[in-house]
């Protein structure tokens, strides 16, 4: 285990969760269902980030039992239904508004919840990787026709430092299917996956974004100019 740097800040202890009496039939076992999360706001111990457990502090403590299947993973209390995030992206990810044409020339369209930018070198620098990108673009259109996909740009444009093409994702179901597939099939290409939020394009493409492969340098000045 890597030692903690000597100047690291002391972790802030989380407040203890209130204990609730568990029905005798459930003693020593996980609750049969989790009731609806509470909507009562709780001050965060780690501002500016919201309290991650504020909606669950009214529930019994999590059980310490471990699974008999592998002997190491924890048994979680079941829910009466799947988390809402299987069907809705968490706030502040949103799908309203438009992408200004100044950022992507000639394009003005509704925002997706997530954008996927797939980069490749100019054809004259690496014809093989450029061909891979072309075939990947075609394969995505065959494999995921429900996704929104745009033209292949064979030169840098907007904030993007290399040729690329873009795929839009609108639902968690699409995200869960497409992103793992892309991890396996992106080949030598770099990929930026970022949300569209009310935090602004710079945050979305930097703090909020994640990379597959080598990270490329985004031209944030394009966003700041608009």
UniProtKB/TrEMBL annotation:
<dbReference type="Pfam" id="PF08883">
    <property type="entry name" value="DOPA_dioxygen"/>
</dbReference>
<protein>
    <recommendedName>
        <fullName>Dopa 4,5-dioxygenase</fullName>
    </recommendedName>
</protein>
<dbReference type="InterPro" id="IPR023389">
    <property type="entry name" value="DOPA-like_sf"/>
</dbReference>
<dbReference type="InterPro" id="IPR014980">
    <property type="entry name" value="DOPA_dioxygen"/>
</dbReference>
């Amino acid at each position: 285990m890597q030692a903690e740097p000597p100047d690291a800040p002391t972790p802030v202890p989380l407040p203890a969760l209130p204990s609730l009496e568990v029905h005798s039939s459930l003693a020593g076992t996980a609750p049969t269902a989790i009731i609806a999360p509470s909507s009562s706001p709780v001050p965060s111990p780690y501002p500016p980030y919201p309290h991650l457990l504020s909606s669950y502090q009214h529930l019994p403590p999590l059980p310490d039992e471990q699974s008999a299947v592998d002997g190491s993973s924890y048994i979680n209390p079941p829910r009466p239904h799947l988390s809402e995030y299987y069907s809705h992206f968490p706030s502040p990810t949103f799908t309203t508004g438009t992408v200004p044409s100044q950022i992507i020339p000639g394009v003005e369209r509704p925002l997706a919840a997530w954008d996927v930018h797939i980069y490749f070198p100019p054809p004259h620098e690496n014809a093989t990787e450029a061909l891979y990108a072309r075939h990947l673009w075609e394969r995505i259109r065959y494999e995921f026709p429900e996704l929104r996909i745009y033209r292949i740009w064979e030169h840098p444009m907007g904030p993007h430092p290399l040729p690329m093409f873009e795929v839009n994702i609108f639902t968690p179901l699409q995200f869960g299917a497409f992103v793992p597939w892309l991890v396996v099939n992106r080949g030598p290409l770099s990929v930026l996956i970022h949300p569209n939020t009310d935090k602004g394009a710079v945050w979305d493409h930097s703090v909020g974004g994640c990379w597959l492969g080598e990270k490329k340098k985004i031209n944030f000045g394009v966003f700041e100019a608009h």
